[in-house]
Each structure stands twice: as C-alpha cells, then as structure tokens.
Specification:
With about 80 residues, this protein is mainly beta. It has one domain (about 1-70). Helices cover about 5% and strands about 20% of the residues. The chain contains one helix and four strands, in the order H-E-E-E-E. The chain has one helix at about 15-20, and strands spanning about 35, 35-40, 45-50, 55. The strands form two sheets. It has a two-stranded antiparallel ribbon. The chain is elongated and about 50 Å long.
Length: about 80
C-alpha cells in the first residue's frame, strides 16, 4: 500500500466542510483512502472490474464528510 501525504483541507478555497469539525467521510470512514473499482479489459477483450486503492476523491483526502445526506442542496439556502 502506497501512503501519500495527508491533507487538512481540500482544494477548494473557503470550503465550509473543511472549516468545521464535521463527521468522518462516509466513503472512506475518515481514513482518507478508499478502494473503488475500475474497469479492466483482459487479453480476450472481456471487461471486468479490479479494486484500486487511492486517496479518497469524495472528501479530497481530508477524511471529513463533504456532502452530508441531510445537508440542504447548494443554492437552496
């Protein structure tokens, strides 16, 4: 497993989710890493799925939830 740097904030300036304490990301459980699947074509042309481990894209590698299910949609405030 490759370990990368950890982030305190995502790449968005003034992110309201990074500014607060918040809850752990529901996709990586606060670990900052996740294991999504990606398509892979084998030699016979059959497409299958393989797990990859990478920095969590849903929280920007911060480990904090960035879109809680109970939060109002953007622009609806």
């Amino acid at each position: 497993m490759r370990v990368g740097r950890t982030r305190q904030r995502c790449g968005v300036d003034g992110c309201e989710w990074c500014a607060g304490a918040g809850r752990p990301c529901r996709f990586c459980a606060g670990t900052r890493r996740w294991r999504p699947e990606r398509p892979l074509r084998d030699a016979d042309g059959v497409i299958g799925w393989v797990r990859v481990e990478e920095e969590c894209r849903m929280c920007g590698g911060t480990g904090r939830e960035h879109n809680p299910l109970d939060a109002p949609a953007a622009g609806s405030r």
